[in-house]
């Protein structure tokens, strides 16, 4: 039949095959990304060094705090009425129900669980405002300010602050009572620290940072999440993604076992611009300290001061009306977000997505902004692929990025062993250091001939991967 030709497969007399596309590809094109997966599998017959996995994780910042909301009636981003919102126990019940329901819509092998990045001072505020710590949390320096070590603000009322309240005091807070030492409720979420009071750490003194980190760890212990499988103790989500240019802060992180922080893809100064699949490592120029890994995280168009679709739509138009030349509807916003996120997912970008505690409101409105964001993305994703969607806690996301960095640096080599025009084996080696190399194969392997320590992994309809330590 007549018409345009998109692609051809040519088979030559010697058996060689060639796949040709007759149009340009672009990293911005969803069709191109899907076709990249197609030709890769076709050309390699599903034998390649690497693995295919889509990680889909949502971080919820500011948990236990209250959030000041916008005022749509007066058109104010910062309301003058004291309008604030804090999630309830019923809201978390609703999120658990949503997580279970959305997994039924995801491909086989999927697992979805959000991460609660909490600020322990929010518990004190609810139990007794007079007993809470009063710390100015705002930023008063440039966004990429590099602090001189040994200097900085002292905003805490005392150094070496201690939690000295009774168990009954904490029980005055509904959310503490809901989560504390309750595995049934805790395990429905991942957990990590967002510091104690939410102080911006860009110009914070060592003493302030020590209080922020240490006291929130103490609160994690009182909650009973510290040390549990769902707790991340080695990575942190800092308030406003701050403190990453502050050597004093980074050293305090390490003092308490925190070996990585989350970044923000909207900030080039803390993003690996050469390779977005790798962490950004701090330098003497960026932070007066070399080698602290910053794990990518992507902001969403779901805003921290919004609890429902009308509020979020108003805020979106407040930001983008001049760009689009008109107001956008929620449906248009959702469509843009779904397409933007799908492109990241099918590029196998593993960074988490940023939300805030106000976005979990659902008790009185039915669906949270989180659910309203996730559901259309999953529906669109299902139209393209059947690959499982996996949520990881932040410690495991950190390890996945560091494992990728090790693979890039170890000088790994993969060779196919050919016998009688068939691939009968794979040789793997590393020339510059140790790493664990993933090799994807189309069929099962002879486990008796695997190298010592090698493991097999297959999730849902993803291909079989052999992880080989080198």
What does this structure look like?
The chain has 470 residues and is α/β, with parallel strands linked by helices. It has 13 helices and 21 strands. Strands 9-8-5-15-14 form a 5-stranded parallel beta sheet. A 4-stranded antiparallel beta sheet has the order 3-19-21-20. A hairpin with a 2-residue loop joins strand 17 and strand 18. Helix 7 packs parallel to helix 8 and helix 11 packs across helix 12.
Q: Would you state the CATH class of the largest domain?
A: Alpha Beta
Give the radius of gyration: 24 Å
Largest sheet: 5 strands, parallel
In spatial order, strands of the major sheet run 9-8-5-15-14
What structural keywords apply?
470 residues; alpha/beta; 7-stranded beta/alpha barrel; 3 domains; 4-stranded antiparallel beta sheet; 21 strands; globular
Quick rundown:
The chain has 470 residues and is an alpha/beta fold. 32% of the residues lie in helices and 18% in strands. The mean pLDDT is 96.
Question: Layout of SSEs?
Answer:
Layout: E1 7-11, E2 17-21, H1 30-44, E3 48-49, E4 54-55, E5 58-63, E6 67-68, E7 84-85, H2 89-105, E8 115-118, H3 121-127, H4 167-170, H5 174-179, H6 183-186, E9 190-193, H7 206-223, E10 235-236, H8 247-255, E11 260-262, E12 280-281, H9 284-287, E13 293-295, E14 297-298, H10 309-324, H11 330-346, E15 352-356, H12 369-384, E16 389-390, H13 394-409, E17 412-419, E18 422-430, E19 436-441, E20 455-457, E21 464-469
Helix pairs in contact: 2-12, 7-8, 11-12
């Amino acid at each position: 039949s007549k018409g345009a030709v998109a692609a051809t497969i040519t088979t030559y007399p010697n058996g060689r095959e060639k796949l040709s596309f007759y149009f340009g590809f672009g990293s911005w094109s969803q069709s191109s990304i899907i076709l990249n997966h197609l030709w890769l599998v076709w050309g390699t017959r599903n034998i390649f060094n690497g693995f295919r996995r889509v990680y889909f994780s949502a971080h919820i910042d500011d948990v236990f705090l209250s959030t000041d909301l916008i005022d749509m009636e007066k058109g104010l981003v910062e309301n003058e009425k004291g309008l604030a919102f804090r999630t309830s126990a019923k809201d978390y019940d609703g999120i658990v129900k949503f997580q279970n329901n959305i997994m039924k819509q995801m491909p086989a092998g999927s697992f979805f669980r959000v991460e609660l990045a909490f600020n322990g001072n929010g518990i004190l505020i609810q139990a007794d405002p007079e007993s809470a710590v009063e710390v100015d949390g705002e930023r008063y320096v440039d966004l990429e300010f590099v602090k001189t070590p040994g200097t900085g603000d002292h905003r805490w009322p005392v150094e070496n602050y201690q939690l000295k309240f009774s168990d009954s005091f904490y029980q005055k807070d509904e959310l503490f009572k809901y989560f504390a030492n309750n595995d049934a409720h805790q395990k429905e979420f991942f957990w990590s620290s967002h510091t104690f009071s939410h102080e911006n750490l860009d110009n914070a003194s060592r003493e302030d940072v020590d209080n922020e980190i240490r006291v929130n760890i103490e609160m994690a212990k009182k909650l009973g999440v510290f040390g549990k499988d769902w707790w991340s103790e080695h990575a942190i989500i800092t308030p406003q993604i701050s403190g990453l240019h502050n050597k004093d802060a980074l050293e305090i992180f390490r003092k308490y076992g925190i070996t990585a922080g989350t970044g923000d893809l909207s900030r080039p100064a803390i993003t690996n611009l050469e390779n977005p699949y790798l962490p950004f490592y701090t330098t003497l120029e960026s932070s007066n300290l070399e080698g602290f890994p910053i794990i990518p995280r992507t902001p969403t168009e779901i805003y921290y001061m919004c609890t429902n679709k009308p509020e979020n739509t108003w805020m979106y138009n407040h930001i983008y009306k001049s760009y689009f030349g008109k107001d956008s509807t929620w449906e248009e916003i959702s469509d843009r977000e779904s397409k933007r996120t799908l492109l990241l997912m099918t590029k196998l970008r593993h960074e988490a997505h940023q939300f805030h505690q106000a976005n979990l409101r659902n008790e009185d409105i039915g669906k949270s902004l989180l659910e309203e964001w996730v559901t259309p993305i999953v529906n669109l994703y299902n139209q393209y692929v059947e690959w499982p969607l996996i949520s990881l806690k932040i410690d495991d996301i950190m390890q996945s990025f560091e494992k990728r960095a090790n693979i890039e640096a170890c000088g790994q080599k993969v060779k196919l062993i050919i016998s009688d025009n068939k691939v009968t084996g794979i040789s793997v080696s590393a020339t510059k250091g140790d790493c664990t190399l993933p090799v994807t194969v189309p069929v099962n392997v002879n486990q008796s001939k695997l190298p010592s320590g090698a493991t097999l992994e297959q999730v849902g309809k993803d291909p079989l991967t052999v992880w080989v330590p080198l």
